[in-house]
Amino acid sequence: MARPIWTGTLSFGLLNVPVSLMSGERSVDLHFRMLDSRSNTPIRYERVNAETGDEVPWKDIVKAFEYKKGNYVVLDPDDIKAASAEGREAVEVEAFVDAASIGPEYFEKPYVLVPGKKAEKGYVLLRETLKRTGKIGIARVVIRTREYLSAVMPRGKALQLVLLRYPQELVDLEEYRLPDKPTSDYRIAAKEMTMAEQLIESMSSDWAPGDYRDEFRDRLRKVIDKRLKSKGVVTAEESADEAPAENASTNVVDFMALLKKSLDTNKRTPAKKAAPKATKKRAPTKAAKKAPAKRSAAKSKKTSGSKSRKTG
Predict the structure, then answer these.
(1) 160 vs 151: CA distance, rounded Å
(2) Structural domain contains residue 26
(3) Are 2 and 83 in contact (CB under 8 A)?
(4) Structure confidence by residue, pLDDT tens digits, 97-136
C-alpha cells in the first residue's frame, strides 16, 4: 500500500477531519538510461563550472536568480526558507464555489484524502453535502515546502484534492488570434450545423476510461520484451515497502453545534500556528539586508578570475 504524503486535517468552518493525503496518480512511463554505444556503460551527468570546466561539488553550489543577462543575486538557504510556506499538514477550505465555475485549464494534479480512524462521520458529511449542493471547496495546502491552491471535490466514495493552477500560470486567450465573429461571418450553413450535430450524436457514448490505453507504451513494452528474450534475461532488484500503520484518531464531536456556530459566526478555521507566522515576517527583512552583500560578493567572484573557487 502507498505511503501517505502527510497525515493532518481537513478543515471547513470549525470542523476538523483527520485525513491522510495520498497520491492520486501513478507513473506508467518507461524510463530509459543513456549508454555509451561503444561499451554499453551508463553515462553520468556532472555539475561543471561553465568557465573552468571543472566539476563542482554539491557543497559549493548555491542558488541564484538571474535578474539580468549574466547578472545574479545569490540566495542563502535561509532566504528561501523564509519565503517557503508554513509546513502545516492541513487542508483549510476558504470558500465553496460551483463545481462548473472552474474551467478545466485550472486543474493540474489529483490526490486522494483518506479519513483517519474514527473520522468517517465528518468525512462523509462533507462528501455528501458537496454532492447535494454541486459545490467544491477551494483550499490552500502545503505539500513538502510549497503552498498550493487546491479544490476539494467529491468523487464516488472519495474526497479528492486536486491542485489548481494560479491564474498567473495560464496564458490569456486574448494573446492568440481566435475566431470571435458571429457564426454567419464564417459562412456556416444551417445544414452544416445540423449535420455536425448529427455526427456528434452518432459518435456519442458514456465515458468509459477503461476503454482507453496508452497503445504506444504497450507496443514499446512488447519491443522491450522481445529484446530481453533475444539478449538474455535481465533481473532487477525488487523492494516491498510496507505502509506505516495509521494512528490518526478523533474525539466524539458535536457536528451540529460546530456547524451552527460556523454559520452563526461565519467564521473560518483559525490558524493554529499564528506565532510562527509572526516571527517569519522578520525573515524577509534579514534577506533584504543580505541581498546587496551577496550581489557584491558575486561580482567580486566574477572578477577574481578562474583561480578562485567557483560556486556556480
Answers:
(1) 8
(2) yes
(3) no
(4) 999 999 999 999 999 999 998 889 999 999 999 999 999 9
Considering the entire predicted model, what is its pTM? 0.60
Closest CA to 98 of 133, 123, 149, 140: 133
Q: Does 163 map to a domain?
A: yes
For the domain that residue 105 is a member of, what is the CATH number? 2.40.290.10
Residue 242 lies in a domain: no
> Are 155 and 113 within 8 A, CB to CB?
no
* Residues ≥6 apart with Cβ < 8 Å to 139: 91, 92, 93, 94, 149, 150, 151, 152, 161
User: Are 137 and 96 a contacting pair, CB within 8 Å?
Assistant: yes
Q: Distance between terminal CA atoms of the chain? A: 41
Count of the separate structural domains present in the chain: 1
| DSSP string across 139-162 | EEEEETTEEEEEEEEEETTEEEEE
Q: Is residue 188 part of a domain?
A: no
